[in-house]
Amino acid sequence: PSPLVVPPSQYWDGDNGAWSSFALRVGTPPQDVRVLVSTNSPEAMVVVPLGCTTTAVNPVPADCANSRGGLFNTSQSSTWQEQGFFGINENGVGFEADLGYSQNAEYGLDTLGLGFTGGPGGPTLENQTIAAIASVSPFYTGIFGLSTQPVNYSTIGNFSAPSYFTSLRSQKLIPSLSWSYTAGAKYRLKAGQYAQLIFGGFDTSRFTSNSASFTLAGDIDRDIVVGIQSIIYSGTTQANLLSTPTYAFIESTDPNIWLPEAACQEFEKAFGISIDESTGLYLMNTTQYAQLEATNAQVTFTLGNSLTGGETVNIILPFSAFALPASYPLTSNDTYYFPLKKAANDSQVTLGRAFLQEAYLTVDYERGNFSVSQCLWVDGAASQIESILSPTYPTNISSPALPASNAAKSSNHLSPGVIAAIVIVVVFVVAAVLGLAYYFFVYRHVPSNAP
Q1: pTM score > 0.85 for this model?
Q2: Structural domain of residue 429, as residue ranges?
Q3: Which of 116, 276, 417, 439 is deepest in the core (most CB within 10 A)?
């Protein structure tokens, strides 16, 4: 099978930024919703009509249903199979537990497809886990999970439902258990660059290749881990923002960059920002935003597979990547905020969705490795999609298929050097055969001159 390229919705959604979303078709008949990608969630999460009532938020936002990405009504789907109400994690373990997320949801199984009804899209799969929510925090819009982990319903006989991602692979709809994702950036190019999500491949037109390779960690809830070796601020001055290298989890569910307190203090000094006590956010008013934008500052994250040494990659974030628009109900008025959070411990150090505006992430679960690359910004660039083939395919004789080393492509073509060697061998064999034929059929039958 070929890589599955999921079309973006071409909308910018969210109350904690302008995020490029994707469309899902949920239920029977299909109901369209727009959601954000969660690289570490095992399920799809959608907003129900209760989410646009005063029970969930007061006052109800203007154009609430649209601002939340559309609503899914479970009672209007003939294929909805109720499973019950559960939390997204339990006892400090599970999805986003490290960051303190708490969310109850109505879980069920239903049909789930990629893309808008009637538009270009992807497969529709049955019996997919759907988590229906109403509250506006920590999720204002729904999400679409890319995790390999199943959802386990322990209270109803240990029933286990596979994720959409693993279902694609088990049904042989994608060439491998791999995906590539970048969050997109509204501040880039003429009209913004939408997010990109590809199952079983990657797009070489969207990033700069590098030689760094990373291995997946053993913790299934925190597996895409990199070593942050340094963080350098470049603006009116230059400063090292990270005194001690640290490991960080890359994920797209949370928008923030979570760093040790000492590093956050260095960010505060470099950008002149401070926490707003009422919201817990690093808010920026219009004047402060304009001043920071004028400095044209940027921050360079140097990442490696370990805390020191080895091959590394630099991911550069301009100030625009840190100037996220915030709106109601996250804030009472429209403003900007700096997506920085203080990590209480090592398990909270995270490079969230803001980081993935400028980083292209490719993860190969079958080989246990991944790559992180700097995004490219070229208006009108044609996509160059390449496959990541499963190592289980007998025709795949190449090494792990990741863009960092271009090994992710699988090819059955011979290189020019190999072809030349084959030609030389063939010519030698032909010459030898002709020589032997001459000896036996010509030379040995020449009449002797002896008396």
Answers
A1: yes
A2: 416-445
A3: 116
Number of domains within the chain: 3
Judged by phi (left if over 0) then psi (alpha if -120 to 50, else beta), residue 406 lies in left
Q: How far apart are CA 398 and CA 212, in angstroms?
A: 18
pLDDT of residue 419 exceeding 50, the answer is no
The dihedral built from the CA positions of residue 106, 112, 113 and 117, taken in this order, carries a sign that is: negative
Residues 136 and 262 in one domain: no
Q: Is residue 95 a contact partner of residue 101, using CB atoms and an 8 Å limit?
A: yes
Residues 51 and 150 in one domain: yes
Distances (CA, A) of 222 to 144, 225, 355, 357, 402: 17, 7, 17, 20, 20
Q: Is residue 100 in a domain? A: yes
The residue out of 159, 175, 191 marking a domain boundary is 175
219 and 365 fall within a common domain = yes
**Given this model, what pLDDT does residue 152 score?**
83
Closest CA to 49 of 74, 32, 31, 25: 74
385 Cβ neighbours under 8 A, 6+ residues apart? 3, 5, 198, 201, 202, 203
In a domain, 234, yes or no: yes
pLDDT tens figures, 244-276? 999 999 999 999 999 999 999 999 999 999 999
Residue 116 resides in a domain: yes
CATH number at residue 303: 2.40.70.10
Closest CA to 233 of 223, 244, 242, 220: 242
Query: What CA–CA distance (Å, rounded) separates 159 from 169?
Result: 20
Q: Write the pLDDT tens digit of every residue in 357-371.
A: 999 999 999 999 999
User: What distance in Å separates the CA atoms of residue 369 and residue 403, rounded to the nearest whole number?
Assistant: 11
Residue-wise burial string across 285-300, b where 16 or more C-beta atoms lie within 10 A, e elsewhere = eeebbeebeeeebbbe
* Residue 209 included in any domain: no
Task: Name 199's bridge partners.
Answer: 4, 179
